[in-house]
Amino acid sequence: MPQAHDIQATGGRVEALISEFGALTDPVTRAKAEELVRALVELYGAGLERVVEIVTEAEDAKVLHRLVGDPLVSGLLVLHDLHPLSTAERVREALDRVRPSLGLHEGGVELLDVDESGVVRLRLRGSCHGCSSSQATVTDAIERAVASAAPEVSRVDVEAVADDREPLLQIRHRPPGSRPTPEAVS
């Protein structure tokens, strides 16, 4: 099994290097560095596009499923806009994967929307009533799962837990003037 590659760490390193290139004072060196990065990205993007075409033409769903299931390859497919699943579909799959770990909170999370700017809106359901730290833990787990499956998502908005339970019996003060008199009781 090949060693797992931390795509987020590598992406961060690439962005840092590009930023350093942008800070170079020599415009010729900066232009050549940018051209080198652009040529490499175009080259491996074209190769990846060809791989997807070959697999699609061969109608080999198993191979395509394995490609999109691999976090490194899936991230590259998203980067080059070659991923066969939409952002919403990948977010739904991520939510399905994280639901078992939300067991204490009944695993209820619902995708409401993915807008064009990449903002995902979710709603929690379950038993997080009054436990803000648990809700924060659940939200963090969901956000990590979504970021891993759909790195193009710019933000995840999580609505508070929907209260879909019947309210408990409420004991209230008696309205003034409705107190029974001793004569009426005896």
Automatic annotation (TrEMBL):
General function of this protein: May be involved in the formation or repair of [Fe-S] clusters present in iron-sulfur proteins.
SUPFAM superfamilies associated with the record: Fe-S cluster assembly (FSCA) domain-like
Native species: Streptosporangium lutulentum
Family annotation (InterPro entries): FSCA_dom_sf, NIF_FeS_clus_asmbl_NifU_C
Domain of life, source organism: Bacteria
Protein's recorded name: Fe-S cluster biogenesis protein NfuA
Domain NIF system FeS cluster assembly NifU C-terminal: 91-156
Sections of the chain in a coiled coil: none
Region (Disordered): 166-186
